[in-house]
Amino acid sequence: MIPISPDEMRAVDANCTYFGLLPIQLMENAGSALASEARRRARGKKIAVVAGRGNNGGDALVAARHLADLEVTVFLLGRSREIATQEARQNWEILEHLNFDLREVRCSEELEPLSRYDLILDAIFGTGVRGPVRGLEAEAIDAINSSGRPVLSVDVPSGLGTEKAVEPDATVTFHRPKVAIPGEVVVAGIGIPPAAEFYVGPGDLGLVARRASESHKGENGRVLVIGGGPYSGAPALAAMAALRAGADLATVAAPRNVAGIIAGLSPNLIVRPLSDDHLSPGDLDLIRELLPRHDVVVVGMGLGRHPETREALAELIPECGKAVIDADALLPGIPLQGIITPHESEFRRVSTIRVPPGRVEKETLMSFARDMTLTVLLKGKVDLITDGSVVRGNATGNAGMTVGGTGDVLAGIAGAFYSKAPPLRAAVAAAFVNGTAGDLAFVEKGYSLLATDVIEKIPAAMRL
Ligand SMILES: NC(=O)C1=CN([C@@H]2O[C@H](COP(=O)(O)OP(=O)(O)OC[C@H]3O[C@@H](n4cnc5c(N)ncnc54)[C@H](O)[C@@H]3O)[C@@H](O)[C@H]2O)[C@@H](O)CC1
Ligand SMILES: [K+]
């Protein structure tokens, strides 16, 4: 089984909630699995639960209820009114109502009896531990380690990754192995089906959209859009979407015939006119000047098919660093890198793989991405996103989004996220935000929906 980091696990949990699989259900499953393992290991009836005030403690409170036929004592570190989550509090209150042996611990002396138990469940901290462990929690870790009794850690040994951690006999970890747990590890399923890790949700957004409150202008992404020619709206949509998705700066490099129109569309955009009515090799010096001042290049929308444009792209794209490649830049023979955002016929064109309509299989997409060292976001009813090793699906979006321009919006959002996150995470979150913004716009506009309506809903989609 592939290990999972705390951040990724938090994203899975958040997505489960979005799909209606609630934390209280997962906690019940976790506590039940934990109780089975504890029962298997306990050499006697006396079980001590040492619980912190987060959900890790909550898991162990559930286990205490499942072990009610044994002699269970719960040591809660701190006061019950300080329990941090609704789910853990609810489980504490059940035990209180049912008169379980509950002790609110305020100093480490109250943990001395630990050496008299047959098994200790360590549930002080799980994946939510932050910074150094001090005070009562540190003393409780010492008390567990010096108890001389068998210890079963819940999810991860408490304090793992900090200077002070429990050294258990074994750990029951939930769903998937967590990174870097030493010693014996038992992985317990908690009812999260593979589909809950395949489909994209707001947890994926959490993995890219965090912004440090003290960040400066430019630190949240500078996106250069290269597009336009036959079309003027496409690059403007991509650039506006990048700004709404959190980029600090969006520059559009566009052919001179449309540069003025684009600049007139929004005062938020910086527009650099190219030398001709299409992108040509003569523009490369200007673009090379712009590249170091941007983090990501979003290229292709509305460029048209002039042979000189093709020549310019072939030379330019390998110099772009992080690139989101879309539409008219998706041609065979033009080098690809970073993220590509084809719909199905563009995918056929660029990959030269013969697939019947509606039949791009996950495996085909993955092996193409792997061979080309690319992240592919294949737009469809369910978008498929892969970097060749992981494949994800995005089911947000609606039939109203077949209107022109929504693909440009998606590429712009992907550009904004790619400035801050690795390509797979950026593409996954962009697909979710674009589709969700489209769904919010559809509620108001129905089939009259326009790409600009989708852009206006990006902020609401990002608040999910
Ligand atoms: N969220 C979910 O859907 C699920 C979570 N689960 C459990 O929840 C755990 C994560 O729960 P939480 O996110 O509540 O976090 P934890 O229970 O790991 O710990 C967080 C608590 O400890 C406090 N804390 C953190 N660092 C501290 C430090 N250095 N010193 C003192 N106090 C500190 C926090 O203020 C918070 O109250 C997982 O490990 C797993 O056991 C499971 O119930 C399964 C489902
Ligand atoms: K723990």
Q: How would you describe this structure to a colleague?
A:
Its EC number is 4.2.1.136, 5.1.99.6. There is one protein chain. By secondary structure, the protein is α/β, with parallel strands linked by helices. The chain has helices at 6-18, 23-41, 55-66, 86-97, 135-145, 194-198, 202-206, 233-244, 256-265, 284-290, 307-316, 344-351, 362-372, 406-418, 423-445, 451-462, and strands at 46-51, 71-77, 101-105, 119-123, 151-154, 170-174, 184-188, 222-226, 249-254, 270-273, 296-299, 323-325, 339-340, 375-378, 383-386, 391-394. The protein contains 16 helices and 16 strands. The protein has a 9-stranded mixed beta sheet, with helices on both faces. The protein starts with 5 loop residues before the first helix and ends with a helix. The mean pLDDT is 95. Bound molecules: ligand NAX and potassium ion (K).
**What small ligands are held by the chains?**
ligand NAX, potassium ion
Number of alpha- plus pi-helical segments: 16
Sheet of most strands = 9 strands, mixed
How does CATH name the architecture of the largest domain? Answer: 3-Layer(aba) Sandwich
Average pLDDT reading? 95
Instruction: Examine the coordinates and then state which fold CATH places here, giving the name of the CATH topology of the largest domain.
Output: UDP-N-acetylmuramoyl-L-alanine:D-glutamate ligase
The CATH class label of the largest domain is Alpha Beta
**Low-confidence spans:** none
N/C terminus separation: 30 Å
**Content-based structural category:** alpha/beta
Q: Give the CA-based shape.
A: elongated
The order of strands across the largest sheet is 10-9-8-11-12-13-14-15-16
Number of domains: 2
Estimated radius of gyration = 27 Å
What's the CATH superfamily of the largest domain, by name?
Ribokinase
Number of strand elements: 16
Beta-strand fraction estimate: 15-25%
